[in-house]
Amino acid sequence: MRNFRIAPSLLSADFACLGQEVRDVIAAGADIIHFDVMDNHYVPNLTVGPLVCEAIRPHTQAPIDVHLMVKPVDSLVPMFAKAGADIITFHPEGSEHIDRTLGLIKENGCKAGLVFNPATPLSWLDHVMDKVDMILIMSVNPGFGGQKFIPHALEKVREARRRIDEYTAGHGGEIWLEVDGGVKVDNIAEVAAAGADTFVAGSAIFGQPDYPSVIAAMRAELAKSA
């Protein structure tokens, strides 16, 4: 039986009171803080850097999941590790040598993951399954919050789950399967049924007045597919 994790994305939070937002969503029942980093180069948006990660670190004991939508990647890895990241994921297109980048993340004491855009093939995983702790499937094109879920992403989630199960059956260990983009109460069960265990939700949580009720509703839906 899979453990389900809900990861609110700070991209949709109120940046004027970010520390309070972090405390509020964790108190409301969230498991992870998802921290989106965009560089206006790899994606057409500019968000936050290591200083903001460091600023929110004292506000929670929950893992901080840093999603690097940047190019190049490697120089930022030690900065975010020092700033308090627990998990660092990146897009294969953002690295010249993904094996080296995955190794760098682990050398800096963080869990490492690869992120796949809607049009990015999972074949990047063929030679690095032994180095990934998380696979993140984007169900929108990265760059902006509040986008609609792309249904075709479910096929990629199912294929990623097959790869994870096949690898862990033979080698042991644990690899999380995260989905990011357009996840909300009315589709989270379907995403879980496809094989996901970790769910990034931005506007679906931060866009609502009552965080506990939204997260509780998500967990009720997840219970249906457990």
Reconstruct the topology from this structure:
Elements: E1 5-8, H1 18-27, E2 33-38, H2 50-56, E3 64-69, H3 77-83, E4 87-90, H4 98-107, E5 111-116, E6 134-138, H5 153-171, E7 176-180, H6 188-194, E8 198-201, H7 203-206, H8 211-225
Parallel strand pairs: 1-8, 2-3, 3-4, 4-5, 5-6, 6-7, 7-8
Helix pairs in contact: 2-3, 6-8
Structure overview:
The protein contains eight helices and eight strands. The protein has 226 residues and is α/β, with parallel strands linked by helices. The chain has an eight-stranded parallel β-sheet. α4 (98-107) links the parallel β4 and β5 (111-116). The mean pLDDT is 95.
Describe the structure concisely.
With 226 residues, this protein is α/β, with parallel strands linked by helices.
Task: Record keyword descriptors for this entry.
8 helices, 226 residues, 35% helix, TIM Barrel, 8-stranded parallel beta sheet, alpha/beta, globular
Second CATH tier, the architecture? Alpha-Beta Barrel
Give the uncertain stretches in residue-range form: none
Q: Which assembly state applies to the chains in this document?
A: single chain
Q: Classify the beta-strand content into a percent band.
A: 15-25%
* Category from helices, strands and their pairing: alpha/beta
Taking the sheet with the most strands, its summary is: 8 strands, parallel
Counting structural domains, the number is 1
Mean pLDDT across all amino acids: 95
- Give the N-terminus to C-terminus distance in angstroms: 7 Å
Cα gyration radius (Å) = 16 Å
